[in-house]
Specification:
single chain; alpha/beta; Rossmann fold; 2 domains; seven-stranded mixed sheet; three-stranded antiparallel sheet; 10 helices; 23% helix
Length: 390
């Protein structure tokens, strides 16, 4: 069978890669007959990846009747209105209303399958009413609808939990959303380019390192696997307010850590940071509470990780600068225990399941942001496989 699909809010083609690969692996052909993407830089990269596909620049200005017939509609509709790293306006945000264009395409074209992806907070915003509305509207269109949380860490060394919504038209949806694969995506060490010193690697200098305040290493008796296993987080010092309280916008949850510190700490002490010594001691922590983040809409920060960690979820602001890799300094003459660098563009691409052979045509920063805004290819392949070939 030749599966024809359309790729909405297509980004750089994560869904396209995933569907092409999973169909081929199951002995089927596939063809993208229509794609839509707003941002010029993403369209340029998509066109480089898939030169034969026409890319519509504005889904709101096309009559759904003119979209080619297709078997599968897929799309990671804009997540910013629903993300905990945004203002969480939901469908009150014009970007949040783009889901209604998906409804209209499904109503008119009636593809057999659809796969939608978004941030997990979509399920919780507006006390769950927005998510309930989406499921109800899809069901009204005669689709058997199911959803499942799938984390990229099952396939690559990146913590990236997303909700996938699938549907089958006028038939039973055999997608089993009660189980997940018993796999593990490994650790950051598995995707590092050890021998590619010319891979535009950016090593942090003292000034850059001095921007960070270490927080999570000083949380006493906190057994959460998020801190214990996934990453060691350093936070930009300017996120401390005048009362020396810190509210992180970096945690992949609805909560963040509020840390009150003493006034004795000197942010400008480069030696403490650069030597790998801890800036805050447990005695300096006066209180730690899980609180509602009040630093809404200011984007992601940067998190220090070791190569045995999983990476923090790549940011659409700048995927490359989401994670800072801490490496043991092998120079015995150096006064510093560790070196620090950002992950390279190729390493970030590997976290999202992209091939090393891709020719990135935008700048490092723009390409990193496009990667941060992409779907994780192996996660989509897993969902598509269960939906199409179960």
């Amino acid at each position: 069978m030749n599966y024809k699909f359309i790729d909405l809010f297509a980004g750089i083609g994560g869904f396209h890669f995933a569907l092409s690969e999973i169909c081929k692996e199951n002995g089927h052909d596939s063809e993208c007959v229509f794609a839509s993407e707003k941002y010029t830089s993403a369209r340029r990269q998509y066109k480089k990846n898939f030169p034969k596909v026409y890319i519509n620049p504005d889904i709101t200005k096309i009559n759904p009747a003119y979209i080619p017939n297709h078997d599968i509609l897929c799309g990671g509709f804009p997540c910013q209105p629903f993300s905990t790293n945004g203002k969480q306006l939901g469908t009150s945000d014009i970007r949040g209303q783009l889901i209604f264009y998906i409804f209209e395409i499904l109503r008119i074209k009636k593809p057999k399958f659809f796969i939608l992806e978004n941030v997990k907070n979509l399920m919780h915003i507006d006390d769950g009413n927005t998510f309930k509305m989406i499921l109800e509207e899809l069901t009204k269109l005669n689709y058997d609808v199911k959803f499942q949380m799938v984390d990229a860490k099952l396939f690559t060394p990146q913590n990236r939990s997303r909700v996938f919504i699938t549907g089958v038209y006028n038939d039973v949806n055999n997608y089993d959303n009660t189980i997940l694969p018993k796999t593990d995506g490994g650790c950051v060490r598995d995707i590092l380019c050890y021998n590619e010193l010319n891979d535009n690697l950016h090593t942090l200098n003292k000034h850059e390192l001095n921007k960070f305040r270490k927080t999570s290493d000083f949380i006493p008796d906190l057994s959460s696997s998020f801190y214990k296993y996934h990453l060691i987080e350093y936070i930009n010092a300017n996120r401390f307010n005048s009362n020396n309280q810190f509210n992180s916008s970096d945690l992949d949850s609805e909560d963040s850590i509020d840390v009150e510190i003493s006034n004795e700490n000197d942010v400008s002490n480069e030696n403490d940071v650069s030597s790998g010594n801890e800036i805050l001691s447990e005695n300096e922590i006066k209180k730690i509470n899980l609180v509602r983040r009040d630093n809404i809409g200011k984007g992601f920060g940067e998190a220090i990780i070791d190569d045995y960690n999983k990476a923090y979820c790549l940011s659409k602001t700048d995927g490359i600068r989401t994670n800072v890799l801490r490496i043991l300094n092998e120079d015995s003459n150096s006064e510093y225990i560790y070196n620090y660098r950002y992950l390279s563009l190729k390493e970030c691409a590997r976290l999202q399941g992209f091939s090393d052979s891709i020719n990135w045509i935008n700048s490092q920063t723009i390409s990193g942001g496009l990667l941060g805004n992409s779907v994780c290819i192996p996660a989509v392949k897993y969902v598509a496989s269960k939906l199409l070939f179960n």
